[in-house]
Amino acid sequence: MKIGAFDHHVWPIICSTLLLMVFLAKFLRKKVKKNVKNRKFQLPPGRRGWPIIGDSIKWYNAVASSHPPQFVEEQVQRYGKIFSCYLFGKRAVVSADPKFNRFVMQNEGKLFQSSYPKSFRDLVGKNGVITAQGEQQKKLHSIASNMMRLEKLKFHFLQDIQRVINQTFNNLHDNQVICLQDICRKVAINLMVNQLLGVSNDSEVNEMAQLFSDFVDGCLSIPINLPGFAYHIAMKVQFKSCLPLEKDSSKALVFDASFNLKQARESIISKINKTIETHRQQPSSGVGNGVLQRILEEESLPDDAVADFIINLLFAGNETTAKTMLFAVYFLSQCPMAMRQLLVEQERLKTARNNFGGEMMLTWQDYKAMPFTQCVIDETLRLGGIAIWLMREAKEDIRYQDYDIPKRCFVVPFLSAVHLNETVYEEALNFKPWRWMIPENQASARFCPGAELARLQIALFLHYFITTFRLWNQLKEDRMSFFPSARLVNGFQIQLRRIPDDDRK
Ligand code: HEM
User: Fold this and answer.
1) Whose CA is nearest to atom 3 of ligand 1?
2) What is the ipTM of this complex?
3) 15 is in an annotated binding site
4) Which range among 101-105, 255-259, 333-337 shows the weakest confidence by mean pLDDT?
5) What residue ranges are annotated as transmembrane (predicted)?
């Protein structure tokens, strides 16, 4: 049978040819589109991992271990120093490349911004230096840097820090068994209360310290309370697997759902507001010499912004300082040679202490004469990795060398992968404070406005610790973990041997 001019055998051939051409056209269009897209978005190499959660569980397993860069190191071997993956339900670009990390830090606010969950921002306050963005962040950063610059430390903090440390140590007796992790938290929180709020009365310090401490513990647990978030699932799995093994004495693992964080925040704000009121009523009473009082005198921030500012500083400075103190003693216990050298430096200064109102204290010149102590602090920060990674978000599509980072992508400079890299630091896994005596190693980025204050606090803590307690017996093996924050899993339980009073000069 004929249809039109064609034989009926010809029609199937024409139809299939047409179909083939349509498919071919579609395929080529897709290919061209993909190429254009690839050219536009050449993500760093990497992988997708599991649906929704991506590599979050592997990530958490690594950071809960004693060697947090493990996951990053594995990916670096496969894909290179900058790679992509999925974390917390988001596409992420992770870097173990010091150059890229510097690029991120140098373009803070311009190309990148900090990326914290909303619930965290609500708790620590939207108007604080950690959580604010753009121009407001720059302004708050400069206020924070101004409040904690060297001259202020010299005049406002030096003696107070020594008083607070001694108050805590005076309550510890010979042969007492302590959990050093708890003691360091207590010292650091008391220091924060004293320096931020200008509170020095014992009972007030204790009351505020308890409030601050509960608040910081709670904030560390907030990712747990994000239902439906990949983060939440990862944490839950992680918790089930690590909790029975790693129950430590610090409160860092107390994840009590009934804990009312908002209430703790309100109580802190009400205390801050009361202090503001007292200061306004008696501005020249000389009561309190904290950052809070100085902000009220020197800056013109609204009261709610002042409260957020203080809570942000508390959050940024408390755990970081406490854990650096703890890790310094932990590393020193494992390195007798460094311990001996530190003791020589500090014993010499102990004999030079001066009398300030009946208390023997160190002067600013003494503090400046602790070169080896500063190396111990640098090495503790490198090996202890208190700030393991930074959390950023791309503000726009960004081109870096051959790669593209799309807008809103999670960007993670993984600092400890650089700090523990053998090609950057020889014998990177060993505690070797002497490496910081080499001038080239000394330059480091200063993006923490509290860095100098933290150094002063840690140096003075080490001075009084090693010159008050002779030797300490470690009662339980310990190891570091970085989940949910940096800690020693058994809290570093030690028995103190106090140097007899007549031995002290
Ligand atoms: C050893 C102790 C400390 C360490 C290891 C440390 C580390 C850091 C790091 C890595 C950052 C950058 C975070 C980021 O960019 O996402 C940072 C920022 C910050 N730190 Fe510290 N810090 C310490 C002590 C302190 C203290 C004592 C204070 C103040 C009381 C403080 C206040 C801040 C503030 C306000 C920021 C935010 C700066 C901004 O975003 O503009 N830090 N710190």
Assistant:
1) 320
2) 0.97
3) no
4) 255-259
5) 6-28
